[in-house]
Design brief:
The protein is of the alpha+beta class. The protein folds into two domains: 2-11 and 122-181, no CATH class; 32-113, Glutaredoxin (3-Layer(aba) Sandwich), CATH 3.40.30. Helix content is 44%, strand content 7%. It has seven helices and four strands; from the N terminus they run αβαβαββαααα. Strands 2-1-3-4 form a four-stranded mixed sheet.
Length: 197
């Protein structure tokens, strides 16, 4: 599973890359910093809520972190108490509004409080790739990694085998990330899909 974690780290770091030197220093006028929000993060250890804590630290945003150290079941009991319809970590209250989905929460915090940090400007040529990687980490890559994990759990830890010559889902997601991150030559850009064989 270590390669999957490395690919997810790559996706997160690509999603949160700093603004390139030739890009405008300021975010567009529509992305102004809002007043300091009240943020309550319901967290469970080793869950995606860590992304929200990390981003708040990076942006210098104060937050109230609620979880039970060493007691994941207890942390989820606390989450169920405030979000009974969908007890997930993260469950975040942003100025009293309940939010879920770590990618959406991160985008909200960056849009409202990032002041152009950690995100290329919307008109930057890097912005489409930034958005893709921001959502790839929690969309395709996470789903593919979980699919492979479930197969391994059901087969006493055996790695998923290729089917009809196609890579298992998690390996497919990692192969794409690895191909995308390789330097390109000539006029091809890195947002093009990798060649198929």
């Amino acid at each position: 599973m270590k390669p999957i974690l490395a690919a997810m780290a790559l996706a997160v770091s690509a999603a949160c890359a700093t603004t390139p030197a030739d890009a405008p220093a300021q975010a567009p006028a529509t992305q102004t910093a809002a007043a300091t929000p009240e943020i309550i993060i319901y967290h469970a250890e080793s869950r995606r809520s860590e992304r929200i804590v990390w981003l708040c630290e990076e942006l210098g945003l104060p937050y109230d972190l609620r979880y039970r150290r060493g007691d994941v079941a207890g942390s989820f009991a606390d989450i169920r108490a405030v979000n009974p319809g969908m007890a997930v970590a993260p469950t975040v209250f942003y100025n009293g509004e309940l939010l879920m989905e770590s990618g959406a929460i991160m985008q909200l915090l960056l849009d409202r409080h990032g002041d152009g940090k950690l995100v290329p400007a919307v008109d930057s040529p890097d912005y489409p790739a930034h958005l893709m990687w921001m959502h790839y980490a929690e969309g395709t890559l996470a789903a593919d990694a979980v699919a492979d994990y479930r197969v391994a759990q059901a087969t006493d830890g055996l790695a998923p085998e290729p089917v009809n010559g196609r890579e298992p889902a998690g390996q497919r997601g990692m192969s794409f990330a690895n191909t995308f991150s390789k330097p390109t030559t000539g006029s091809a850009d890195q947002t093009s899909p990798p060649p198929t064989s």
